[in-house]
UniProtKB/TrEMBL annotation:
Transmembrane segments: none annotated. Signal peptide: none annotated. It holds the Pfam family Beta-lactamase. InterPro entries: Beta-lactam-related, Beta-lactam/transpept-like, Beta-lactamase/esterase. SUPFAM superfamilies: beta-lactamase/transpeptidase-like. Residues 18-373 form the Beta-lactamase-related domain. Gene3D superfamilies: DD-peptidase/beta-lactamase superfamily (3.40.710.10). This is CubicO group peptidase (Beta-lactamase class C family).
Length: 397
């Protein structure tokens, strides 16, 4: 297997770990991309993309990394003064106030505090791709907890919740807003609804191997019928089974379904690692970046049944080396914020290091977030920057 691309002096360890992923950790195809002070220092790819070589332009499903793109859209509007993150959701989406949600704030949607982490009403086959259906279901649903009082990962509903606010404020569907304001100006390989003519670039997902320990959310889903976890897994309109089809790639979800690669992920976060601007494209004001990175939800996660930490729309590092590997989030620095995707993809910005990172692959790992392949690359980047690792796994300078 040949690794292609470039790697700057000082980051040879990243290339070595990427090659080890193929030789020792079961990598099939993927890429890693790193920027520092706005400049690309790592851009590597290799392996198989479904019977053909993984190339510079290959893209794949990055699962919940999509949430980072959706959250960014909300922050673009907030930075412009068009969206107040502390306002009630009903200011922008009046129908949302049904069944005890009149006082829910926009920030509750972003911080996984809305109490809508699963859908109670049956979702018909393919229903997750029906935007009006899903936003209607969520608008009239009673929350599982009073918004703002607890947090639990909104794995499949985050995108419809935040994306509908983006639509109501901007007048554009989420995917169109992202293309107009983010991916287009930055020239990203990143789509929230993939155009049909780009389907030949897609590397199909290889599901994780079965066996071994299950993440707590899946164990609860299997063992507790009717639970929030069981609704998450069993009431998605068959999304997971159909997620690797052209129809799913073309649909708009906002939580999942984003199609990108390591370059697209890292370059989306590149401006956020440099005060909100890159090469004349300003996504957000510099003052918005701390708003994006500051922790607002931390502790026991009602959905994942494990400790998590979130800022307004992004995942933060959790010192969780004591947890089984299938439960762990990405071990980054405290300055970093971004999002992983089921099976292992990851994108984040680290403003303290002025660094952004992206990793995408075709073979999924067994956990709910980053696995050993992606974490090995993150670790190599931080070591290359001279960072050290605390006993709980979090990196510091």
């Amino acid at each position: 297997m040949t690794v292609e691309g470039t790697c700057a002096d000082g980051f040879a360890e990243v290339r070595a770990e990427f090659e080890r992923n193929f030789a020792e950790r079961g990598e099939v195809g993927g890429g890693v991309h790193v920027t520092l002070d706005g400049e690309t220092v790592v851009d590597l790819w290799g392996g198989d993309a479904g019977g053909r070589a993984w190339t510079e332009d290959t893209i794949t499903h990055v699962w919940s990394c999509t949430k980072g793109a959706t959250a960014l859209c909300a922050h673009v509007l907030a930075s412009r003064g068009e969206l107040d993150l502390d306002a009630p959701v009903v200011r922008y989406w009046p129908e949302f106030g049904q069944n005890g949600k009149a006082d829910a704030l926009v920030r509750h949607l972003l911080a996984h505090q809305a109490g809508l982490a699963a859908v109670r009403e049956p979702v018909p086959p393919g229903g997750m791709g029906d935007w009006e259906l899903m936003t209607g279901l969520l608008a009239r649903q009673e929350p599982f907890w009073a918004p703002g009082t607890r947090h639990g990962y909104h794995a499949l509903t985050f995108g419809h919740l935040v994306g509908e606010v983006v639509r109501r404020v901007s007048g554009l569907p989420l995917a169109e807003f992202f293309e107009k304001e983010v991916s287009g100006p930055l020239g990203l390989d990143f789509w929230l609804a993939l155009p049909e003519d780009l389907e030949p670039l897609v590397a199909p997902t290889i599901p994780a191997e079965r066996g071994g320990a299950l993440p707590s959310v899946y164990a609860a889903a299997m063992g507790t019928p009717g639970s929030m976890q069981a609704l998450l897994v069993g009431n998605s309109g068959g999304y997971v089974a159909a997620s690797d089809t052209p129809a799913a790639h073309a649909a708009q979800y906002g939580s999942v379904g984003g199609m990108s690669n390591a370059r697209g992920l890292a370059q989306m976060y590149r401006p956020l690692a440099s005060g909100g601007e890159y090469n004349g494209v300003r996504l957000v004001d510099e003052a918005q970046v701390p708003v994006m990175s500051g922790v607002v939800s931390a502790g026991f996660d009602e959905m994942l049944l494990a400790p998590t930490r979130f800022s307004l729309g992004f995942a933060k590092a959790v010192g969780n080396l004591h947890l089984p590997a299938v439960e762990r989030g990405a071990l980054m620095s405290e300055d970093a914020f971004g999002h992983s995707g089921m099976g292992g993809s990851l994108g984040f910005a680290d403003p303290g290091a002025r660094m952004s990172f992206g990793y995408a692959m075709t073979r999924m790992g067994p956990g709910v977030g980053v696995n050993a392949r992606g974490q090995s690359l993150v670790d190599a980047v931080y070591r290359s920057l001279g960072y050290r690792q605390a006993p709980n796994g979090v990196w510091f300078s």
